[in-house]
Prior knowledge:
- Strand 1, helix 3 and strand 2 (92-97) form a beta-alpha-beta unit.
- This protein is an alpha+beta fold.
- The two termini are 28 Å apart.
- Strands 1-2 form a two-stranded parallel sheet.
- 29% of the residues lie in helices and 11% in strands.
- It has a single domain, classed as Rossmann fold (3-Layer(aba) Sandwich), CATH 3.40.50.
Amino acid sequence: MLAGNYATLNFYLTNFTDKTALVDAVRNIPYGGGNTNTTGALRLMRTEIFNAIKGDRADVPNVAILISDGVPNREIDQLGAEVSHVKNSGIRIIGVGVTTAVSECTL
């Protein structure tokens, strides 16, 4: 099973209390290869990360940085609906493409 087929969670907002530890954790997220499941990643982010039980704070804006190495190729038929769920949840997404395979899109 390739890691890119399914969204994976590396840590919760409650795991770190200082910037240095958080930056270190982000730098150490492994690259799993495989496909690009943007839908699964957005769903996991919306339900597991921006969740009060897991550390989301009502007084802090929800902003996510979506880093992608290509165009979505898993659960594509559900992507539009998941983007709507994310937007309706008040989460702002900043997209970062890391290869020439990334095309301009509007989420």
